């Protein structure tokens, strides 16, 4: 195994519980649940290889090459050798992410290598269907599949990731900067407001109202809605639904869980039919089928 890939990931992650999911040739795939006593900044460290991070639950702050952004269950980011990376957990521990480390020859063999390496550190978000594929991969690795299948699934996932994830997001806020002009103070204030709203929604039980979110971030619902859309490209409702569906997928992946009606209530849906409609819109399958897919040991990608 090449240097930097396959060694102990605890030396390169936030303090926490970690579990190796697969070690196919030239790759290391693992998950981390952060357990921290100090909510402040950890690091910085300098990356020794290429790492792809995929958020699964909770929230944290990451400082990548001097730029700070909020990570949550919708976030993906890539680091390259030499990148400076630090993290903090202002909301406490418990955030979960998957990490895929890639050896240089794995990237060199791909026809889309330049798309991976076109800038020094990038981040963005994945859609619901790609997130489902990621979670299915984790679930099957946890239940036990051989390294041949792990490798094939990971290569397939990487290809779809590049074809469906908008790159060029290594400079967060580029869209709002173009929209309002280069006014750094305004841009920074709007980013902070949007991130604070995201933090409130991540920490909520999903039954919180828009007015309550606005009160907690100190502005009117109208102003918050307008700024959030401008900064993130999503409405608050769309972002909240993405978070809710991610949380529902975590419940469904755990195996025998509560009835779907209880899952709907716990996540703030009007009823089970509403839950089914929103989940199907985002990932292409209703919750009942997803529960069966997660439980099926030999199921292929959804």
- Spans where pLDDT lies below 50 across 5 or more residues: 166-181
CATH architecture of the largest domain: Sandwich
Q: Helix count? A: 12
Task: State the fourth-level CATH superfamily of the largest domain.
Answer: Regulatory protein AraC
Q: Which CATH first-tier class of the largest domain would you pick?
A: Mainly Beta
Q: Please give the domain count.
A: 3
Assign the CATH topology of the largest domain: Jelly Rolls
Q: Tell me, what's the shape?
A: globular
Separation of termini? 30 Å
Q: What is the helix fraction of residues, given as a range?
A: 40-55%
Percentage beta strand: 15-25%
Number of strands: 10
Going across the major beta sheet, what is the strand order? 1-2-9-4-7-10
Overall average pLDDT? 83
**How can the largest sheet be summarized?**
6 strands, antiparallel
Please compute the radius of gyration using only Cα atoms. Answer: 19 Å
State the order of secondary-structure elements, H for helix, E for strand: EEEEEEEEEHHEHHHHHHHHHH
Q: Helix/strand-derived class?
A: alpha+beta
What does this structure look like?
- The chain has helices at residues 104-108, 113-117, 128-143, 147-164, 174-180, 184-203, 210-217, 221-232, 236-253, 260-266, 272-283, 287-295, and strands spanning 16-22, 27-34, 42-46, 50-57, 60-64, 67-71, 75-79, 84-88, 96-102, 122-125.
- With 302 residues, it is an alpha+beta fold.
- The chain has 3 domains: 9-164, Jelly Rolls (Sandwich), CATH 2.60.120.280; 174-233; 238-295, Orthogonal Bundle (Arc Repressor Mutant, subunit A).
- It has a 6-stranded antiparallel sheet with strand order 1-2-9-4-7-10. A 4-stranded antiparallel sheet has the order 3-8-5-6.
- A hairpin with a 2-residue loop joins strand 5 (60-64) and strand 6 (67-71).
- Helix 3 (128-143) runs parallel beside helix 9 and helix 6 (184-203) packs across helix 8 (221-232).
- The longest helix has 20 residues, at 184-203.
- The protein is globular and about 50 Å long.
- It comes from Micromonospora eburnea.
């Amino acid at each position: 195994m090449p240097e930097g890939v396959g060694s102990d990931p605890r030396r390169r992650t936030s303090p926490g519980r970690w579990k190796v999911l697969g070690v196919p040739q030239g790759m290391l795939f693992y998950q981390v649940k952060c357990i921290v006593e100090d909510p402040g900044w950890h690091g910085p460290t300098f990356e020794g290889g290429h790492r792809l991070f995929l958020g699964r639950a909770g929230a944290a702050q990451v400082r990548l090459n001097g730029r700070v952004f909020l990570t949550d269950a919708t976030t993906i980011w890539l680091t390259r050798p030499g990148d400076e990376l630090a993290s903090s957990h202002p909301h406490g521990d418990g955030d979960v992410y998957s990490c895929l480390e890639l050896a240089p020859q794995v990237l060199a063999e791909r026809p889309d290598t330049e798309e991976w390496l076109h800038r020094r550190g990038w981040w963005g978000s994945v859609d619901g269907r790609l997130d489902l594929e990621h979670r299915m991969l984790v679930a099957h690795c946890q239940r036990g599949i051989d390294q041949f299948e792990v490798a094939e699934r990971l290569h397939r996932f990487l290809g779809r990731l590049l074809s469906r994830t908008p790159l060029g997001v290594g400079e967060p806020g580029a869209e709002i900067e173009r929209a309002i002009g280069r006014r750094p103070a305004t841009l920074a204030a709007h980013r902070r407001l949007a991130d604070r709203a995201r933090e409130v929604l991540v920490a909520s039980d999903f039954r919180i109202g828009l007015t309550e979110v606005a009160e907690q971030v100190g502005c009117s619902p109208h102003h918050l809605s307008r700024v959030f859309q401008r900064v993130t490209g999503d409405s608050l409702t769309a972002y909240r639904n993405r978070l809710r569906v991610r949380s529902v997928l975590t419940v469904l992946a755990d195996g025998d869980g509560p009835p779907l009606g209880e899952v709907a209530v716990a996540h703030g849906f009007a009823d089970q039919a509403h839950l089914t409609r929103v989940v199907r819109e985002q990932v292409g399958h209703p919750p009942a089928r997803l529960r069966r897919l997660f439980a099926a040991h030999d199921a292929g990608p959804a």
